[in-house]
Amino acid sequence: MRVFFRAADDFLHGRGVFAVDAPLMGRLRWLLVLMLVCGLSYGAVMGTFSGLKAGRLHQLLYSGVKVPLLLLATFVLCLPSFFVVNTLAGLRDDFGQVLRALVATQSCVTVVLAALAPITALWYVSCRDYGLVLLFNMVMFGVATLAAQIVVRRYYRPLIAREPRHRRLLWAWFVLYAFVGVQMGWVLRPFIGNPEAPVAFFRAEAWGNAYVVVGGLILRTVGRVPAPLLTFTCIAALPWLVVLAVIWRRAVASRRRKMGPNFGCPPASREA
Amino acid sequence: MIQWLQELDEVLRGHKGDPQLLAGGTGHIHIKPLVAVSIVLGIVYGLCMGLYAVLTRTPPCFAQMFASAVKVPILFILTLVITFPSLYVFSALLGVRLGPKDTLRLILAPVSANLAVLASLGPIAAFFTLSTSSYPFMKLLNFLFFAVSGVIGLKVLLTMLARLDAAQAGRATATPNSAPADDPGPTVTVTPVALSPSGDIMGTTFRLWLVIYGLVGAQMGWVLRPFVGAPNLAFEWFRDREANIFVDLFRTIAALFGA
């Protein structure tokens, strides 16, 4: 137990076997253990919303297994194309390091989730509405993903310093991972378990496509809004979008000035 | 098999576009292994594509899966067969110094890179197939994957062209004593007056050809359909001729969001 917490502590601080330049083999085992243990524990807490009654306790186990499963399955599905794209970009030699960074990110998400578990439990105690509970868990996953960016940056910094193209590929990874992950989360439902529905590992009607469902929901909502209001909203939103775009461009430009001329784009000599 | 993979790996790593090697022509790109590995990659993606017909129909339509696995490599081969003569004839007419075999080698490498990206997206397509019954969504997803891999293949081709151009310019200007390819920097900046039009023409020809290739490829995909197989239609090797792929693309988007 103590060894485990020490490993988690080392991981969060990025030292010992988890230092950026330490060899992979020593830490891969720990990263997987962290992911499984922390993922399981958050999942179990997630399942308590409906699983604390007699005869529903296995919901805790189901939810617990699903959190690491969600992360690992998405990771495995996205890895082949990311590997090919990295090779095509001429960055195959760095792929070992890239892999380390990505696995560490997964572990970090679960560690943060495990740390957030008590807050989720408190929310469950104070709120009995299934929709709000669902929303709260989504927010927790979002927070964990954002916090994991710290670990990604830590491991990616030397890579980006060596080859700025890594920055773009990292973005590509996030887009791909999110695209697959959303659908994976949809397929693996229920994570929380509706208290009124019987406990099941997979929900019979869960099989479907998240994007089609959400797109349909948005369209139905938009369809209910009166047309003049819709036009007005679109027109009113335009100037704000322009303002945001300008602010973003300025921020990028100022960062580019600070980081030097090669920020964010590949140096010309490598391309030629 | 191992040799095929090695050849593919070299293409992906960009070793085939090494300026030093390109200065000596395109002989280091081997046609046979690349064609073989491209066919295998096409089959892999075709199987992932055809999975939809197996999962959504009762009884499962394995014929569609087989047909898709055959059709994806054929799509790429036929597109190349149709567009290659025009590429070669026009580039030769415009004075590009590449023989037919050199030209073929030069475009085979990007095509196999294209198929490698496509095949690596196969697992994702298969995963979405497992969980999706919406036909328009699957069609659009496959279209997106083809487009993404096509764009990446295009980037590979353009990089290779730029390097070939630089390498040939370097070879023409450098004296035998100085090794030009060791140091690609200067050779890029030195643009010999006599040779730069040829390089320009080569770039323009290939870019124009890319547009033709894309259009022919899209239309070829339309002629060879069904790849995914509409769930309400019976399996056929080829569908009747009607409309074209761009009309269908708009219809699909409308169907996805409208209905």
What is the element string of chain B, with H for helices and E for strands? HHHHHHHHHH
Q: List the uncertain runs of chain A.
A: 261-272
Question: What is the number of independent domains of chain A?
Answer: 2
Average pLDDT level of chain B: 80
Features:
heterodimer; A: about 270 residues; mainly alpha; 2 domains; about 75% helix; B: about 260 residues; 10 helices; about 0% strand; elongated
Could you please describe the fold and organization of this structure?
- With 272 residues, chain A is mainly α.
- In chain A, 77% of the residues lie in helices and 0% in strands.
- Chain A contains 9 helices and no strands.
- In chain A, helix 2 (25-51) crosses helix 3, helix 3 packs antiparallel against helix 6 (165-187) and helix 4 packs antiparallel against helix 5 (130-162).
- The longest helix of chain A is centred in the middle third of the chain and has 33 residues, at 130-162.
- The N and C termini of chain A lie far apart (54 Å).
- The model of chain A is unreliable at 261-272 (pLDDT under 50).
- Chain B has 259 residues and is mainly α.
- Chain B has one domain (2-258).
- Chain B is 75% helix and 0% strand.
- Chain B starts with a helix and ends with a helix.
- The model of chain B is unreliable at 174-196 (pLDDT under 50).
- Chain A binds chain B through residues 76-78, 80-81, 83-85, 87-88, 90, 92, 176, 180, 183-184, 186-187, 207-209, 211-212, 215-216, 219, 269, 271-272, and chain B through 9, 12-14, 113, 116-117, 120-124, 127-128, 130-134, 137, 152, 155-156, 159, 162-163, 166, 184-185, 188, 256-258.
